[in-house]
Design brief:
Elements (H helix, E strand, L loop, with lengths): L1 H19 L4 H20 L8
């Protein structure tokens, strides 16, 4: 859980930095939200362990 929260915070900070560098706000937010949705979906999917 801590790793997940750290990832979310780093994603938000990345977005904030990109906006302060002059990137288009809506594009930055869209990118960061998409990234977080992907991460959430990964967490929700069942883990398959490699048995090799």
């Amino acid at each position: 859980m801590e790793r997940t929260l750290r990832s979310v915070v780093l994603t938000l900070l990345s977005g904030k930095q990109r906006i302060s560098e002059g990137k288009e706000e809506s594009k930055v937010l869209e990118d960061e939200i998409s990234y977080l949705v992907e991460k959430r979906n990964e967490l929700k999917s069942p883990k398959v362990k490699d048995r090799s």
